[in-house]
Write a structure and sequence with these properties.
This protein is an alpha/beta fold. The chain folds into 2 domains: 1-102 and 266-361, Isopropylmalate Dehydrogenase (3-Layer(aba) Sandwich); 120-257, Isopropylmalate Dehydrogenase, CATH 3.40.718.10. Helices cover 41% and strands 20% of the residues. The chain contains 12 helices and 12 strands. It has helices spanning 15-33, 46-52, 58-65, 89-99, 123-126, 166-181, 197-210, 223-232, 244-257, 296-308, 313-329, 345-360, and strands spanning 4-11, 37-41, 69-74, 104-110, 131-137, 147-152, 155-160, 186-191, 217-222, 239-242, 265-269, 275-279. The strands form 2 sheets. A 10-stranded mixed β-sheet has the order 2-1-3-12-11-4-5-10-8-9, sandwiched between helices. Helix 1 crosses helix 10 (296-308) and helix 11 (313-329) crosses helix 12. The structure holds 3-isopropylmalic acid (IPM) and magnesium ion.
Length: 361
Amino acid sequence: MSALKVCVLAGDGVGPEITAEAVKVLKAVCAVRKHELVLTEGLIGGAAVDAEGIPLSPATVEKCRAAGAVLLGAVGGPQYDSLPSNLRPEAGLLSIRTKLGLFANLRPAKIFSVLKETSPLKNSIIDNGVDILVVRELTGGIYFGEKGTTEVDGEPSAYDVMMYSEYEVERIAKVAFEAARKRNHKVTCVDKANVLESSKLWRRVVTRVADNYPEVELCYMYVDNAAMQLLRNPSQFDVLLTENMFGDILSDEASMLVGSIGMLPSASTGHGTLGLYEPIHGSAPDIAGQGIVNPLATILSVAMMLRYSFGMEDEASAVEKAAEESLNYGRTPDLANPAYSSKSTAEIGDFVTARVSEILK
Ligand code: IPM
Ligand code: MG
């Protein structure tokens, strides 16, 4: 097999700490399985603003395009809050997603049984299992619609337009149905079709796409109800298909079902095999540099990378198994539980690295 080319964009806050652990794991996988690994690095977010004056330079985009996959840490920090929108670290993240055409964001929320006690939800609610795949549209909607400030009747005002074309909805709907086919055969289309025109279009298109997948059940749910149902009865969901902003919000909510936002990986994909892999959590500036951030969301993102960009299912499963086992070895403070010893970011990374090598030998 040809070399695995991975471009690492560590970003800000805890970004460098979590990507360092994920890279350790990736190196171990490649060493044991004798795959050549070619790593490159690029700047994004605040780190790029500091060094280059902009949150995403053409050079970084080129490095990503030359790679088979991108591993991203996180972007943002309070020191950048007063910058104009186009220079904020977040603009770099939004821009790399569009520049690479990554319209489909897959965010699995699956509870590991050893974490049941850590979930803030009662056992009676999660006992039936939590295994949800949020399929979030990533390059359209209100994030990318026309926006601006204006004056209405002398009042300073602002607006953000949520617009979707049928094509944008169709391609993400296909991703959701294809995923459901390999899972539990159910898609819940989450929208606000009782109020929003864009949601009515979503329903129309999703209903049409569903005709090609008779073996997949399609349900519709308003987003406010979905936010409530996720806490009331999460096991009713299989694939949750939704637009950009609703997906951003609901995936953070879903992360709490499994115990900590420090556990949720994500994969962003488009039409090709180039994918971008990142934890769903942010740069957590409040805990950066202390060696206490949970690296598992990023390590699990490496598993998604191996699976989706490099077709290495065996290796991906081994990383997931080792990550799960690390929860018995010890935990970072976000998963604190008196029954388990407290471990640092690097200790968890080292454990997964060693364990994955054993599993793959
Ligand atoms: C995420 C993040 C980003 C988003 C921010 C940092 C722009 O919250 O990946 O979920 O809203 O997409
Ligand atoms: Mg988010």
